[in-house]
Amino acid sequence: MAGKAVPERLIFSRKAAESHPTVVLFGGIHGNEPAGVLALERIAKWLPAEVEGNIYAFRGNLKGLAQKRRFISFDLNRIWGQEEFNLVRNTAPEELEDELLELSELLSEIDVILQKHGKRPVVFMDLHTTSAKSCSFLPFNDALMNRAIAERFPVPLILGIEEFLDGALMSYINDLNHPALAFEGGQHNDPAAIDQHESFVKLTLHHLHIVELDRVEKERLESMLKPPPKVQTGFYEILHRHLIPTGAEFIMEPGFENFDFVELDEALATQDGRVVSAPVSGQIFLPLYQPVGEDGFFIGRPVSAFWLRLSARLRKWRFQRVLAALPGISPHPARPRCYLVNPRVTRILSREVFHLLGFRIKKLEAERWLLVQRD
Ligand SMILES: [Zn+2]
Q1: What angle, 0 to 180 degrees and rounded to 10, lies between the N-to-C axes of helices 35-46 and 191-207?
Q2: By Cβ atoms counted within 10 A, which residue in 20, 58, 278, 352 is the most buried?
Q3: Reported pTM
């Protein structure tokens, strides 16, 4: 597969004593999003040889990056699931193609790192950009270990993206009980997005005590990351996702930026010639301005500090055990911290109750629901 144009997987690494913190950074999991990779290349030049931690920085989709395409055969951020793992494990590497080969290589890199450092939490960060104009934001699964890292950054923090995305790399890492967040650093190919990623990575290294920044530099980087005044920082919940049916022609109305306010019934797009309007008022994010992708847009809103504190407290009390003991909820036979749910239960208890306790609900096949527990 290796043509000259295909870059190396590892961008750089630094090794310190085993007892030091470890961070793993990915850029270009989507091949049309080079900003994260370019920022990591800058970080490699900026970093001193000796640092107070272990750092691994990887390119994601090598073939996609070389061809400037989001993906070749499969979206590399949607194939981190049991089915694909079985396929990859039961196939000789030379027979794997495109993203399945990328997946297999990344899996073994992650394996080696976790064997070496995994007794302590290893922090994973996945660097992305969006097709719409955007301030920086962090989408992640609502686990307390993720919140604790996310809340140090002065950007919108989007909880619970996994309910809408299957097979995301960061969900795979969270399932292994390590913190993992995605960072969206602006619009594809905007040079400012490289600066955003660079600031984010430097602050990450600082917060993990791997590299010490002085106060002036830290504040400078934070002010670079801050959204415009109309966009609130802090935690948001997702109210709605517009899924584009296979084969439908979806055209977003022009001019939407991430976190623009939209009103109930406002026309947002057309799909096969029909108007798609907002089913709720809120703030739009990830409006789709590229031909590939199945998510048309999301609508979210800030969550209250009360909700955040209450949900953290309930989870620390292990209140989830009460819920998991209800009739109609049984442990998943293969997946730890997952439960199968009778649809009766999901009709009685609202989604909000599950979210409060740190569960995410996903539909399996017809009439069966999967509960994923995040601490
Ligand atoms: Zn992406």
Answers
A1: 50
A2: 58
A3: 0.90
